[in-house]
Design goal:
With about 200 residues, the protein is of the alpha+beta class. It is built from 5 helices and 8 strands; from the N terminus they run E-H-E-H-E-H-E-E-E-H-E-H-E. Helix 2 packs across helix 4 and helix 4 packs across helix 5. It binds coenzyme A.
Length: about 200
C-alpha cells in the first residue's frame, strides 16, 4: 500500500492536501457511550435475543482455537481503508485477557459464530473489532456480543466505551446506534493521486 494519511475530516490540512492532488479514499467514524447513559434492560434484551442461536458469554483461553477459526473465515470481510483495517489474529492477540476481554456467541455444538474484542485502559474501553459468521449476519448477533461486552465491563468499572469503523459499514453503524453509542468523530483517509 502507498503513502496514506488519516486525519479528522474537518482538519485544515485535508483541503490543503486535496489542493496538492491528494484524494479522500475512505471515511471512518468514532463513537462513544458513557456508562451513565447505558440502558441495561435494552442491552440485556439484545443479548437474550440470541438464545435461539447459542450462548452469549465472555470468552477465555479455552476459546482461542475457535476464535482463530472464525477470524480466518472472516479476515477479508472488513470494509474501509487503513483506518479500519483488521490485522489477522495470532495466538497472542486471539487470547482474551483482563485488559483485552472478549465476548462471543457459541452454538450448542460448540461453534463460535460471533465475537467482539475490546482493549481496556483503566476505566476506558475501546472495541478492537466485532465479527459474525457470514451465514448468520443480520440476526442481531453483532449487536448482542457488543451489548454483552458493555454490560460486563460496566459491572467491573468501565465508565467510557469507544468504538469506530468505516463510514460505509452500515451494519456496524446501526449496531452501535442500537446500543446507544453517539458518533462524535469523523475521519478521512487520503492518498496521493497516482502519478
Ligand atoms: C458488522 C457486523 C459485525 C454486524 O453484525 P450482524 O450480526 O450482521 O448485525 P446485527 O444483526 O446485529 O445488526 C445490527 C444492525 O445493522 C443492521 N444490518 C445488519 N446487516 C446489515 C447490512 N448488511 N446492511 C445494512 N444494515 C444491516 C441491522 O438491521 C441492525 O440494525 P437495527 O438495529 O437498526 O435493525 C457483521 O456484519 C460482520 O461481521 N461484518 C464483517 C466484519 C465487520 O465489518 N466488522 C465491523 C468492523 S470491526
Amino acid at each position: 500500500m502507498g503513502e496514506t494519511k488519516v486525519l479528522p475530516a474537518d482538519a485544515p490540512e485535508v483541503a490543503e492536501l486535496e489542493a496538492q492532488g491528494w484524494r479522500v479514499t475512505a471515511w471512518s467514524f468514532g463513537a462513544q457511550l458513557d456508562v451513565d447513559r447505558i440502558d441495561r434492560q435494552r442491552l440485556q434484551s439484545l443479548v437474550d435475543r440470541t438464545a435461539g442461536t447459542g450462548t452469549t458469554r465472555a470468552l477465555g483461553p479455552d476459546d482461542v482455537d475457535a476464535v482463530l477459526r472464525l477470524d480466518a473465515l472472516t479476515v477479508h470481510d472488513y470494509p474501509g481503508g487503513v483506518a479500519t483495517q483488521h490485522t489477522p489474529l495470532d495466538h497472542r492477540t486471539a487470547t482474551p485477557t483482563t485488559t483485552r476481554p472478549a465476548f462471543g456467541t457459541v452454538t450448542p455444538d460448540g461453534e463460535l459464530v460471533a465475537m467482539t474484542f475490546v482493549d481496556t485502559d483503566g476505566p476506558h474501553a475501546e472495541t478492537d473489532f466485532t465479527v459474525v459468521q457470514p451465514r448468520l449476519r443480520g440476526r442481531g448477533l453483532g449487536q448482542a456480543v457488543k451489548a454483552a461486552s458493555v454490560l460486563a465491563l460496566a459491572d467491573t468499572g468501565t465508565t467510557r466505551f469507544r468504538t469506530g469503523g468505516s463510514a460505509e459499514n452500515t451494519a456496524i453503524a446501526a449496531a452501535n446506534a442500537a446500543l446507544g453509542y453517539v458518533r462524535d468523530e469523523e475521519w478521512v483517509t487520503l492518498e496521493p493521486r497516482p502519478r
